[in-house]
């Protein structure tokens, strides 16, 4: 089963929370820093489904569709994203890009807005080129202090 993924401007929207997980079939230890260039999954906290992409056209921008997929965090290779950043590790408030492992396209919000039934929400998709539309920051949430052995 798939769920649509959209973007909203409301920073207090509880549907905007994602948990960083290890890539498919891999566990990551809590408190381990996320290295730039590493492969992760993002688990939507409310639905327990993974951020996913596949070779379908998105409805508004006609880029690659992005959805939520899987049951309770179980999914497939379409759930894996590479953290692209210019430092050694992904840190709070750093701008990063997320590159889909299978398609090599970047997670983006090009600005296209839905009408009904999800009026005012922006399309989230994957696009082939890097741009200002595919820079992301982790702004709020629960951050685990890195283990001493990883410093």
From TrEMBL:
Keyword entries, A-Z: Repeat, Signal
InterPro entries in the cross-refs: MIR_dom_sf (IPR036300), MIR_motif (IPR016093)
Source organism, top-level taxon: Eukaryota
Keyword presence, Oxidoreductase: no
Residue ranges annotated for the MIR domain, each copy included: 31-86
Name assigned to this protein: Putative stromal cell-derived factor 2
Record organism: Stichopus japonicus
């Amino acid at each position: 089963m798939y769920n649509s993924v959209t973007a909203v401007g409301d920073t207090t929207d509880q549907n905007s929370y994602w948990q960083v997980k290890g890539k498919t079939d891999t566990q990551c230890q809590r408190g381990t820093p996320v290295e730039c260039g590493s492969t992760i999954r993002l688990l939507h906290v409310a639905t327990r489904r993974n951020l996913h992409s596949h070779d379908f056209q998105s409805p508004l921008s006609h880029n690659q569709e992005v959805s939520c997929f899987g049951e309770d965090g179980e999914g497939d290779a379409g759930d894996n994203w590479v953290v692209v950043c210019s430092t050694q590790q992904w840190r709070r408030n750093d701008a990063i890009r997320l590159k889909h492992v299978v398609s090599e396209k970047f997670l983006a919000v090009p600005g296209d807005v839905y009408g009904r039934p999800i009026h005012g929400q922006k399309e989230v998709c994957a696009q082939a080129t890097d741009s200002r539309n595919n820079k992301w920051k982790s702004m709020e949430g629960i951050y685990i202090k890195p283990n001493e052995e990883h410093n």
